[in-house]
Amino acid sequence: MVGPIAVTSYGKLQGREEDGVNVWRGIPFAAPPVGELRFRAPQLPEAWSGIRDASEFGPVSHQPADTRGTRFGGLTPLHSEDCLYLNVWSPASPGEALPVMFWIHGGTFVTGAGSQPQFDGTSFAKNGNVVLVTINYRLGPFGFMHLSSLGDGFASNQGLLDQIAALEWVKLNISAFGGDPQRVTVFGESAGSMSIAALLAMPAAKGLFAGAIMQSGAAQTLPNQQGKDIAVALLTELGISPNGDTSLLNTFSAEQIIEAATRMTIKLTGGSIGMLFQPVIDGDTLPVDPAQAVAEGSAQGIPLLIGTNRDEGNLFFRGETPGADFDESLKALEQMMGTGSLAEVASHYSSTWEGQAEILTDLYFWGTSISLAENQLAYAPVWMYRFDGTVPGHPLLNKAVHGAEIVYAFNNLSHVTRLGAEITPAMQKLAESMHAAWIAFAHRGDPATSELSWPEYNLEGRPTLIFDEEMRVTQDPDSEKRKRIVSILV
């Protein structure tokens, strides 16, 4: 059967019709960042003649192995530096130009891809009448090494520049898939959400999207000098002096670079929590910290939906998993957030693994999200949520852990069966409500629906939508804790 044909500015693409939805996979949005383009800003893709097959996902960025077998549904995709591909789901008969939802995956800036099965866009396209786009971007040392100060065309924030290149591709081409380039909503989780915080501050991203949904991640960057120090440490691992021949970076295999990055990470973090690969304030692509930029109006006119999960930290700290003691974890958190001493606020938490999970939830995820929401209030409407959904009795999902909300937002609950959980009517109802709110936001810039009343966030009542078995709006949840936490993040 002949699949749907989309005519882009680079050539024709043949996708597939699946379950009443047109799907195109593995679309190149930039030139392969290999050889002389390694560690450089992304370049335009080459055009092709004839009809290019777009039925299969493209390779994913090099990343650590999926040891639990859940990231890619038990499959092992091809890993390659040639990874800059995106995927599109669109209603089979779109009619008028539809809003576009542009998903940026998470994974601590070192794992993940737009082809993960939980990010399947069928429900968004079929039930939400939107065009859904998922992307890959360079990860780890290939996407987040601060190398621009070395000259010779090297870039910094390469992974963020990849995201911008994908957004530029969407602006130029999404109308061929039924999408409206003027109605693009970016949404992402964890590192994807932190990426959105950076995009809100990056001059090159201005005008490429009209709304933003941030799930479990706010402004998170490295200072310029720390980024330089990490880059020097990687060069040293590769046997290159900072003032040496940096063109040698193009001579190493991808595996050699990954091995050097792994050695460097162990040396610099001692195995504790930390993110050496993340956006950096380079003074050029990302001139200032995103929280500051948003406070100064960089995201003027962009409606924001933002929230976190009630038990984010319980993904990282669990009773059966050996970990650092409380003081070591606190020092790692101080270094990761650049806050200085957190001893006073830490005194309100138990020194157990549960306390470590709670303080990570409150400071790293919840507090920073509240701060970013407050910074945006003067410039556009903001909606705040908290996800409390759980699977009672499940060894992991009995808490609303980091990442648990994704399959609900996508209405892809079948993914939890891979984790040994059964789908209940209450879970399906929660998924449909959350999914509908995300769709409403893409269509109208407001997540309220006929079934779900959701007032805008404000500093008087701080109304927050709680996603749980019973959806409800709570005024200023955990008020005293919020005051204590946000005060140290200002």
TrEMBL record:
PROSITE patterns: CARBOXYLESTERASE_B_1, CARBOXYLESTERASE_B_2. Residues 5-479 form the Carboxylesterase type B domain. Gene3D superfamilies: alpha/beta hydrolase (3.40.50.1820). Its EC number is 3.1.1.-. Keywords: Hydrolase. It holds the Pfam family COesterase. Belongs to the type-B carboxylesterase/lipase family. This is Carboxylic ester hydrolase. The lineage of its organism: Bacteria, Bacillati, Bacillota, Bacilli, Bacillales.
